[in-house]
């Protein structure tokens, strides 16, 4: 880093505006061959380092070497010689914090954190600039890091939710507070063309009520005062904190997905009433979810009575080929289960919650605790696991996200209740 940090360096200023400029404390090298300015911060780094990682800068300096177009001086020193007279000076129209994080990653490698809100601010800035300046390796690493919190696999999602649950227990606040707003993730994914982040971000967002999404209060998980709108957002009301808004087409996608979640829950409850497959001796449970009903994921209250707002699942169960030993008792159990699930669904619907993944998982475990019929209990668990996998595969289709998201292709579906409209064309 800067070898002369202990010595007093002359003050820098912009001769056109007389604005004082500040050398970056770490990214100012006396032997640097190019000066980059972002806002009122200047960086003196090495052309070779930029060209090594970025094809944009490689082409820029190749042109500059022939035409001398990048040479010049837009920075002067007070009380000292003009040290930039023959040094390329480039003005970057980016946030100084993001530029600093990008350059630090180029020199020292990326050091990302735990995907919390502070880490997201750093990683999202690096990802934007890595995309803009064609730093492909760093872009790939940033997307891979974000994919830990916004994964394309159900296993990854469950691991993510386990971390949120641990955070909730440790801090006593909603586990959703650990992660950035899914609204911000959706807008970022659109901005940098990272479609693999979209399904889980929409999936997470659909668990909130519309009031929590569009008019959050201080107690809501989506209330993040540090957030600001992006260029891809619609204008938001001027109220603290600044809201994060979706584009019109993505708002339509969200509404369609939340509507679809209602059909997912009702279809799930209806399938429980037909318990013959579950009680069938030695046969694997066939999927009871109707493919004519799209499904989505949202907040739901626990079937044991507590509101499950973090969406954490525990589904490590095994199948069994044993024979049902108490058909009459099991029929009664399933009938009571339908009534219980219906009551909780109606309770949740009034509050805007919908979570077929969590519902399936909770139902799958209810018969294991007290039932004497282990065969039906295991079969119910197997059914729950299969339905969760089916739900996960269908997420992109619920939100009309296409096939570029990295999810497994769902089976072909059709639903007259939720027609597959082209939301981009509609706008």
TrEMBL record:
InterPro entries: BTB/POZ_dom, SKP1/BTB/POZ_sf. Residues 407-427 are annotated as: Disordered. Residues 416-427 have a biased composition (Low complexity). Residues 32-150 form the BTB domain. This is BTB domain-containing protein.
């Amino acid at each position: 880093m800067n070898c002369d940090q202990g010595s007093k360096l002359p003050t820098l200023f912009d001769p056109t505006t007389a604005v004082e400029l500040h050398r970056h404390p770490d990214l100012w090298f006396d032997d640097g061959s190019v000066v980059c300015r972002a806002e009122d911060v200047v960086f003196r780094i090495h052309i070779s380092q930029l060209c090594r990682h970025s094809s944009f800068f490689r082409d820029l300096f190749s042109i500059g070497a022939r035409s001398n177009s990048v040479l010049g001086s837009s920075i002067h020193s007070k009380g000292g010689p003009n040290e930039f007279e023959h040094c390329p000076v480039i003005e970057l129209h980016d946030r100084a914090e993001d530029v600093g994080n990008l350059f630090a990653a180029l020199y020292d490698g990326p050091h990302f954190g735990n995907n919390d809100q502070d880490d997201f601010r750093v990683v999202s800035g690096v990802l934007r600039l890595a995309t803009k300046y064609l730093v492909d390796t760093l872009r790939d690493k940033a997307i891979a890091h974000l994919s830990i919190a916004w994964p394309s696999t159900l296993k990854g999602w469950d691991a993510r939710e386990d971390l949120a649950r641990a955070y909730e227990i440790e801090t006593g606040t909603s586990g959703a507070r650990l992660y950035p707003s899914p609204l911000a993730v959706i807008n970022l994914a659109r901005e940098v063309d990272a479609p693999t982040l979209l399904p889980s971000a929409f999936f997470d967002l659909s668990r909130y009520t519309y009031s929590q999404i569009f008019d959050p209060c201080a107690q809501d998980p989506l209330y993040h005062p540090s957030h600001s709108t992006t260029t891809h957002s619609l204008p938001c009301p001027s109220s603290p904190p600044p809201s994060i808004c979706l584009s019109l087409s993505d708002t339509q996608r969200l509404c369609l997905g939340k509507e679809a979640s209602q059909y997912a829950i009702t279809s799930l409850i209806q399938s429980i009433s037909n318990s013959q497959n579950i009680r069938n001796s030695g046969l694997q449970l066939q999927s009871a979810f109707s493919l004519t009903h799209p499904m989505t994921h949202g907040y739901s209250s626990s079937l044991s009575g507590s509101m499950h707002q973090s969406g954490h699942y525990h589904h490590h169960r095994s199948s069994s080929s044993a024979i049902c030993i108490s058909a009459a008792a099991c029929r009664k159990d399933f009938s009571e289960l339908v009534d219980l699930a219906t009551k909780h669904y109606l309770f949740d619907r009034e509050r805007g919650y919908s979570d077929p993944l969590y519902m399936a998982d909770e139902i799958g475990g209810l018969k294991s605790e007290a039932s004497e019929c282990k065969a039906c209990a295991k079969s119910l668990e197997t059914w729950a696991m299969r339905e969760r996998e089916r739900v996960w595969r269908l997420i992109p289709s619920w939100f009309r996200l296409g096939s570029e998201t990295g999810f497994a292709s769902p089976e072909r579906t059709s639903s007259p209740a939720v027609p597959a409209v082209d939301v981009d064309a509609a706008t």
